[in-house]
Amino acid sequence: MGKLTAEAVVDRWVPQTPHVSPDGRWVVFASSPVGRPGEHPVSGLWLAPADGSEPPREFAAAGAEDREPRWGSDSAGVYFLSDRAERGTAQLYRAGLAGEPERLTDWPTGVTGYVLLPDSGAVVLIAPEEKETTADPRVRVVRGGPAGSRPTWDSAERPDRLWLLDLSARAVRPLGDFGSRHVVEATLRPDGHTLAVLTWSVADREPGLYEPGLHLVDPATGARQELGVPALETEALTWWRDDSGWRLAYLGITPPGLIGGRAVFDAADHRNLTAGMSVCPIELARAGDDRLLALFAEGLDTTIRRLEPDGGTFAELRRATGSLLDLSASGDSVAVVGSSATEPEAVHCGPPGGPLVRLGDPPRHEIRWGTQERLSYRAEDGLELDGLLVLPPGRTRADGPFPLVTLVHGGPYDRWADRFQLGWFRNGQWLAAAGFAAFLPNPRGGLGHGHAFAASVAGDVGGAEFTDLLTGIDLLVEAGVADPDRLGIAGGSHGGFVAAWAVTQTDRFKAAVVNAGIADWPLLAATGECGRYDRALGGRENSPIAYADRIATPVLIVHGEDDTNVPLSQAELLHHALGDRPHEFVVYPREGHSLRERGHQLDYLHRIRAWFSDLLA
User: Fold this and answer.
1) Model pLDDT for residues 518-538, shown as the tens digit of each residue
2) Helices 494-505 & 464-478, crossing angle to 10 degrees?
3) Whole-prediction pTM value?
4) Where are the alpha helices (DSSP H) in 364-482?
5) Contacting residues for 31 by C-beta, under 8 A, at least 6 apart
6) Contact 579, 609 (CB under 8 A)
7) Most buried among 313, 416, 496, 573, using CB within 10 Å?
8) What is the CA radius of gyration of the chain?
């Protein structure tokens, strides 16, 4: 058996956004490496027979970023966005299943999205307005309002607009008038007469004060109809039909409050269609029969469900062990990216109720992987929790106790699904290959157990969610799996906060990694891009910086220099607070909230393994 290398982790290609052709014969999808090899992202387009009879083949290859593929209505060609003409600036292309792609746009600022208008000879583009400027200051203006109202902002970013591209004349004209609002996404009603459009009040998230808007637009005239104010964090606009006609659904935050699970809403009255469910919707799609499909996170697994005709319940069609993502549907088939504990991400296709056929043979690994176990246990207050345990390759529980690294997911509204744990961040297998047991807990506040479970951390981060981790660790110590004298903890984003919080609350951990973590919640609320949500999660009393004088555990702090979600100032605070106590502070240039560059991902993998190896030996 071969040895797992960091290069094998970051150089593997991962598929995304699969789409079934209207005639049901083909699936097209994009695929890209985990780590970006150069200055710009690289991704390719792949075709495969929907029945899995032949392996996928790459087409229209250009060594650029080809993404967002969609089928023309005749199934004879694919539209997609690509920056092959000018790296970093995407244009719209069209390609037959053989032959060279045809470039359809030459938009100076680049195209960010598009909507096909079948049988009209036109495409709706989402793109910023071309604007001449002699200077480039980033200006933000606050415009006051009536007492008690929320101020409005002029965005520092240029908002996206809707444009109508006539394919025959290659002429572009504005479509609709949204004033200063920023177009986020649009989707066409299947009868071709109406566009559903989501806008924000500003083009960037920095103020944390953007307000969503939902509109209907006539693609022929640009006439607009308002659908009221949707739920916060609206996304995934999806048309479906019942006996009353066409309806529009979307995903958004479950009210009340800013912290809680996702829900499916009916845009007509913004009614929560998933109220009372103990699972969490993650994606929507319109089935071939025009009914509404959804992916649901359910504990460690994922289900495909369909909204019943009465609009009252989502009936389960298929349960998949592990993760399903990027759901799309056409005719009698769906396409999805699936991953289990023993198989990496791959495109699967078939009827919504299954069976789903894997497109392409599983990769032949010459590497022995660590055994991944599903965990189920109860918190101190009796709440049911789940998680994963990855043991070193070729080892069993009987070979313990092992040095144990607890990996804390971000969010907090996220989860560890029972999927293949191999990536620069999802690195359970990477640590297991070095002899560690990896514990991946899903504490309260996360995804997969409904609204109440998710909302329970509002204003109380670091409280019961932290004791949920300790309970799981204690059970592994009692079972002889974990060595109580060799415990480590690591996490990114909210997981980085938990790792930093952990070493202020206990000296049980002998090593910690804080990746893009939060040290000071009030400062984050003032400087991060999600201010009002951060303010709802915690305050000074929940901030690691308030208790930094207690830290005795060596801490590895890593952060992206250009992070706007959790700014670098958070890491700098923790670094300065630690003073001359053992720690290491690493800043990755050009990186945001997630490491993208291949070299940085390789460095991170080697660095964290060395950190834990030195301190948990």
Assistant:
1) 999 999 999 999 999 999 999
2) 70
3) 0.95
4) 428-432, 451-455, 464-478
5) 13, 14, 15, 16, 43, 44, 45, 46
6) no
7) 496
8) 24
